[in-house]
Amino acid sequence: MKNIIITVITLLALLIAVVILRTWMHTPADEEAVEPSQRTADVNRAAARLAEAIRFRTVSHQNEADFEAQAFEDFISWFSTTYADVIAAAPMERVGHYTLLLRWPGSDAGAQPVLLTAHYDVVPVIPGSESAWSHPPFDGVIADDIIWGRGALDDKGGVIAQMEAASALIAAGFTPRRDIYFSFGHDEEVGGGGAAAVAAKLAGEGVQLEWSLDEGSFLFEGMLPGLDKPFAAINVAEKGSVTLEIIASGTGGHSSMPPRDNAVNRLAEALLALREEPLPGGLSGLSAEMFDAASRHMAFTYRIPFANRWLFDGMLDDTLSATTFGNAMLRTTIAPTMLSGSVKTNVLPIQAVATVNFRVHPRDSVQDVVDHVTRVVGSEHVSVRLPFGGGREASKVSDANSAGFGIVSRAVREVFPGAAVAPGLMIAASDTRHYGKVADDAFRFTPMVVTQEDLTGFHGTNEKLSVETLGKGVLAYQRIIELAAGAQ
Asked: How far apart are CA 172 and CA 175, in angstroms?
């Protein structure tokens, strides 16, 4: 017995030693040293222009009949005047009616071009919520070094930062070596028809971009446990999307004599079954790459499970799956969004229908989702229908070892010294689903620092952006343009 105890203690000591050693070695990969940027941006001018841009109510409504064309015309007129210096160097044209495409010609006609993009349409403010805003959502107020208003983060801030960067470079006499395109969409929030038109135009002209950079992730501050520095997740792919209807049938009749298994009960049971059996996921592929890179910057104790996945993989999957962000990174997500049943309170429905939205992980296909849901909920009384055009597959995964990714990463590390950088997965949708069709690689990242509080303003109340953050964004885009165009 004594020998057994000694053996167990020895093995346990060895296990602990291996875990500690692997954790100690789990540090950031060697990167080329960069000099922190010493430049400054005209932050007051940038902030004032973003505030002005917010005042144009360029709202994308789900119902096309509610489109307010004059607001978009007014914005374009203001944009053309405000950035006349950029347009003089990079002539602008309108594509798809209101999307703006600028081309800044490079000195080397044979060099493959790149594209920077953002969108200037915004989502509506929820009627009746206006009083909950600290400042009216379309007043473009600057108070306490914060720019308030709908579109500050999503995504007029990106439009202004890119144009301010280009304006500063033009004033300094900069000329790109290769063509630099800018595209500013007018309907990203409702599908991105303008971006699709731009992609079709470029394809028709034989333009194949080396890479594109659109909105997507940010530098996240204080959002990953154990990470005390900004984390820049440069998204190299985005999830697909499909919406299914789950239809349960039953015997109708009067609600005073309900059968045990009516349509609503069967639908509820189907939804619960789907919740209990999500699509398979796990920390692999792009998700594993992102968490591996981020965890190398964490405090020692937080690094332990990531450095020793051979021992803690199951625990990691369970822990990450228990959070909304982690679960979205690990698998295709399931979100019931709409329900319908009877036409009257005392009438049992013959059919009860749930509309369920799935965001498709790159490891899965739309057909995988349909097959999984059919297997889990399908029965004599429950069927699955694909009613909305077949869905959209996840994007291809762009190369995190490419020159384009390296340029964005280097600019981030110059402007935000000490930031952790990793490839990421965009869990929502962007116009890059269109632009990516004419780009060798497509990245989704806005070089601005945000906190969890900032993110609550996305499509919500009190959307805002700090003047300092906008200024840093201007500097980062300026450096991205320089590096992309061949300047070192």
From this structure: 9
Cross-strand pairs, 93: 101
Which residue in 291, 281, 297, 268 sits closest to 332, CA to CA? 281
Which residues 6+ apart lie within 8 Å of 325 measured at CB?
223
For the stretch 44-69, pLDDT in tens is 999 999 999 999 999 999 898 899 99
With pLDDT > 70 as the criterion, what percentage of the chain qualifies?
Answer: 100
Rounded to 5°, the CA angle 132-137-141 comes to 110
Tokens coding 115? 């594209």
Query: Are the beta carbons of 248 and 267 closer than 8 angstroms?
Result: yes
Confirm if 34 and 407 have CB atoms less than 8 A apart. Answer: no
Q: What is the average pLDDT across 18-25?
A: 95
What are the E-state strand segments in 96-208?
Answer: 99-104, 114-119, 142-143, 146-148, 180-185
Q: How far is residue 162's CA from residue 173's CA, in Å, rounded to a whole number?
A: 17
- Structure token digits, residue 395: 């994007």
Cβ-in-10-Å burial (0-12, 13-18, 19+) of 192 comes to buried
Tokens of 483: 């590096």
pLDDT tens digits, one per residue of 405-460:
999 999 999 999 999 999 999 998 899 999 999 999 999 999 999 988 888 888 89
* C-alpha dihedral, 448 to 449 to 454 to 458, nearest 10°: 30
What is the spatial distance between Cα 101 and Cα 194, in angstroms, rounded to a whole number? Answer: 10
Rounded Cα–Cα distance for residues 309 and 292 (Å)? 10
What are the chain's domains?
43-223+396-405+424-484 (3.40.630.10)
Cβ contact 434:192 at 8 Å: yes
List, by residue number, the catalytic residues.
121, 188
Question: Distance between CA 422 and CA 224 in Å, rounded?
Answer: 13
Q: Is 242 left (phi over 0), alpha (psi -120 to 50) or beta?
A: beta
Total residue length of the chain: 488
Retrieve residue 440's tokens: 């060798």
E strand or H helix that includes residue 74: helix 69-82
Cβ contacts of residue 227 below 8 Å, gap of 6+? 294, 297, 298, 299, 302, 420
> Is residue 75 within 8 Å of 57, Cβ to Cβ?
no
